[in-house]
Amino acid sequence: MLDFHAHILPGVDDGSKSVDESTKMLEQMQAQGIKCVVATPHFYANDESVDTFLARRAAAYEAVAHLPNRPKILLGAEVRYYEGISRMPDLKKLCVQDSRLMLLEMPFRHWTEYALKEVVDIACQGRIIPVIAHVERYLFIQKKGVAERLLQNGVLFQVNSEFLTEWKRRRKALRMLKHEQIHFLGSDCHNLSDRSPNAGEGYALLEKRLGRDFVEAFCEYGWNKVSSGRK
Ligand SMILES: [Fe+2]
Q: In the predicted model, what is the mean pLDDT of residues 172-196?
């Protein structure tokens, strides 16, 4: 099982604050059966260059790389959308390790036509596959047809575990899953308290409602996406 969205690297963003906290978060993932986690620290283009970010991320990874009994860690980023992102030369460096997948955080408001066009442009350029982070947070305030337009152009969707585990929203989540509109599950964990690793709970709910075969196919799809499309 894959956790595609996690702030588990120590001291690199508003996620884990220390090696000790990261260690415990990784142990929790391991106990839940998560075999691979994508570390996705926030990247804000206004704050730093891509290379500075990558150096900070590498240093944070070094601090946990030696830990035993942890899921495999792939290095990625949660890239905040900004106007002009589709023309950013270094964007490919922010893809999940060795893949074309890039986790993209969109604005928490109606997406402008310009923003939508940029996301579609990135997908159509072919070098990067945008994966919209926790799409359930803002998809339902968008105009009708936005999801279909993105999906038809090769954009993928990630949801947080709570979208499945909270009963009020579960029906929407299951409907999207059945229509192949959700491609990755993540915990978006930041700490050990109110935003702890919980992807295992999401997968358990998925198995309970849609069956073991569905979960296996979902995980295989995600793993193939992560491990294909090498640079
Ligand atoms: Fe996040």
A: 96
DSSP 44: -
Q: Find the 105 Cα to ligand 1 centroid distance in Å.
A: 8
Nearest CA to 198 out of 64, 19, 34 is that of: 34
Ordered domains of the chain (ranges, CATH)? 2-227 (3.20.20.140)
Give residue-wise pLDDT tens across range 72-118: 999 999 999 999 999 998 999 999 998 999 999 999 999 999 999 99
pTM of the prediction? 0.96
CA of 42 to the centre of ligand 1 (A): 7
Residue among 119, 113, 53 nearest 81 (CA): 119
204: amino acid identity, one letter: A
Closest to 6 in 3D by CA, of 86, 109, 75, 101:
75
In the reported structure, the alpha carbon of residue 94 is separated from the centroid of ligand 1 by a whole-number distance in angstroms of 14
| Distance between Cα 34 and ligand 1 center (Å) | 18
CA of 139 to the centre of ligand 1 (A): 16
